[in-house]
Structure formats: C-alpha cells, structure tokens
Amino acid sequence: MLFLYFDTITKIITKLIFNFLLKRSFEMIENYNFTSKSLQFAKGFKAFIARGNVINLAVAVVIGQLFAKIVSSLVADIIMPLFSLLFNYTGALKDLKLEIKANTYLGYGNFLQTILEFLLLSFIIYTILTLISWKNPLQKDKVDKNMLLLQQSLDKEIALLEEIKDILKSNK
C-alpha cells in the first residue's frame, strides 16, 4: 500500500519537473533569436518533444535499467551460485581469476557473469518482442496494405507527370 502512494507521488513529482523543464525550454526557444536553419532545427526539436514520444522513451529507459538490475541480480544471486554447485566451486564464480604473473590477473569469472547477464537479458527482450508481435499480426497486414496503396498512388502520379511531360513536348 505504501509503495502505491510512493509510486504515485514519484510519478506526480516527475511529471511536474518534466513539465517545468519543458515549459522553460519552450520559453528559451521562443525568446532566442535564431537563424533560419537553427530556427528550423529548434522548431523540429520542439515538435519532437511535444509529441510525447520523449516521455515514453524516458519511461522505457528507466524501466529498462530497472529490468537490467533484476536480471543482474537473477544471474549473480541465483544462476551463478547454481553454476558454483555444478562445478563444485566454493567461492563466487565472478571472483575466478587467472594469474598471469605476480599480482596480475585476468578476471574471467566476472566476464563470464557479464556475458551470461547479456545473453539472458537479450533472450528475455527477444521473447517479449516476439510475444508482442505474435499477439498483433494485423499490424503487418496494415503495413503491407499501406505500402500497396502508396505504390499505387505513386504509379498514378508518375503516369500523370509523364502525360504532362508529353503535352509540354508536343507544345514546343
């Protein structure tokens, strides 16, 4: 219950801060004397931010970071100790080192753990994306239909332009 209140308060504070920063940046853009190219860039940036995709992207990044922490914990606290049991090793596998010479080590255990985290995270993301695309097969049909309509429209425009070109040639 307390978590829900904390989560709601965090969302409200984040939204207030983001809206303040967004409003402030819009004011700065409007008050600055831009050249024509920089004005186009600034207006494009303003439109990009105003669409709301930036907020979705920021939320996705935060959720992605938290998800990566969960996967790291899963690998470090559950999977790697199971590997230690499997190989009858008493320490943590991330502490495995190969001594090259005195006081010089290759920490291959930590590297193996990082590779395992990457593979597991990649597999989970792939699985989620596959489930999302499997659940919505109509979107591919919409894209194919839109591409067909676009191609037909372009063919009509090309035919019309060629007719205009022929008329202009005959008038010379």
Outline the biggest β-sheet: 2 strands, antiparallel
The number of helical elements comes to: 5
What structural class should be given to the helix and strand makeup?
Answer: mainly alpha
Question: Please, what is the oligomeric state?
Answer: single chain
Overall pLDDT, averaged?
Answer: 75
Instruction: Indicate the radius of gyration in whole angstroms.
Output: 28 Å
Indicate the low-confidence ranges by residue numbers: none
Number of domain units: 3
Order of helices and strands: HHHEEHH
Helical residue percent band? over 70%
Distance between the amino and carboxyl termini: 82 Å
Number of strands: 2
What would the CATH topology of the largest domain be?
A: Non-ribosomal Peptide Synthetase Peptidyl Carrier Protein, Chain A
> In the CATH hierarchy, what is the class of the largest domain?
Mainly Alpha
The CATH homologous superfamily of the largest domain is called Large-conductance mechanosensitive channel, MscL, domain 1
Strand order of the largest sheet: 1-2
CATH architecture of the largest domain: Orthogonal Bundle
Task: Walk me through the structure.
The structure is a single chain. By secondary structure, this protein is mostly helical. The protein folds into 3 domains: 1-51, no CATH class; 57-135, Non-ribosomal Peptide Synthetase Peptidyl Carrier Protein, Chain A (Orthogonal Bundle), CATH 1.10.1200.120; 138-172. It is 82% helix and 4% strand. It is built from 5 helices and 2 strands, in the order αααββαα. It has a two-stranded antiparallel sheet. The longest helix has 34 residues, at 53-86. InterPro entries: MS_channel (IPR001185), MSC/AndL (IPR037673), MscL_channel (IPR036019). This is Large-conductance mechanosensitive channel. Keywords: Cell membrane, Ion channel, Ion transport, Membrane, Transmembrane, Transmembrane helix, Transport. Channel that opens in response to stretch forces in the membrane lipid bilayer. May participate in the regulation of osmotic pressure changes within the cell. GO terms for molecular function: mechanosensitive monoatomic ion channel activity.
